[in-house]
Amino acid sequence: MAEQPANADSTSQAEGEPLLLDVRQGVAWITLNRPDALNALNGDLTAALMAALERVRDDDAIRVGVITGAGRAFCAGADLKDRVRNQDEGRGPTAFPAAPPPSYFSFDTDKPMIAAVNGYCLGAGLELALTCDFRIASTQASFGLPEITLGFFPGAGAPIRLPRVIGFGQALEMLFTGERIDATHAREYGLVNRVVQPEGLLPEVERVALKIASNAPLAVKSLRDVIYQGMDMTLPQALRFGGALRWAIGQTEDAKEGPRAFAEKRPPEFKGR
Fold first, then answer.
1. Does residue 204 carry a catalytic annotation?
2. N or C end of the chain: which has fewer CB within 10 A?
C-alpha cells in the first residue's frame, strides 16, 4: 500500500476525491485515489490528474513531482467498465481503441517527475509511468501492456516510449505478448531505477525527490531540456545547444550562489534566479 511518509502534510483534498495532491518542501505528491478500482483511469481521475500536472508546471514553489497510487496498485490502466458504460449510454466514442489518449500523456511539466510504483502498473498505467522521467518500484510491483490481448494496442505512447527506455527486443516482447513482468525483471530491463521493499518505497522516493528539489531549479530545468531535446538532434547540434544553455545558466544568481556557498562551507540557498 502506498502511504505518504510520516512527516507529510495533510492532503489538499478529502479522502473521497479521485486524486490527492500534497505539496511540501518543493515536492508535489500526486496520489491516484481510486483504490477499489485499482486506480483505473476514468473521466474524473483524468480531469483531476490533468489539473494536478498543470499545478506542478505553473507553481514555482514546486520543483519535483511524484505520481503514485493508493492501495494495491499504481494504476491498472483505463477503466474499461466505465468506458463501456459511457458508450452504452451514448456519452463516449463507439470503440475504445479509436478514443484519443488523454492529454496528460503528452503533457510536459518542465520539471522532473518520478513514478513511485507500488503495485499493478498496467496498460495506460504503465504509459503514465513512462511519461515520468524515471521510476522507482516496490517488490510488489508488476508491469504490463495487455492491450494487444483485447484486440487493439497501446495508444498513449508505449510503442514509442518503451523501446527508448528498455531494450528493443524486450519492449517488442512486452508489446506483442501483453504479458506482465515483475519488479525484478523491470529492474533488469532498465524500466525502473531501483526496487525496494513496500514500506520503504515512498521514503526512498522522498529522499531522491528532495535531493533533486534542493538543486538550483533553473539549472535542473535546463539540464532536462538539454537531455530530451538533444535526443532529437545530431551530436554536433546537441553539443552546441547544451553549450548555449550551459552559458546562460552560468549567468544566473544561483550559479554564483553555489560556488559562494561552497567556499563559505554552508548549504546553498537557491532562489531560481
1. no
2. C
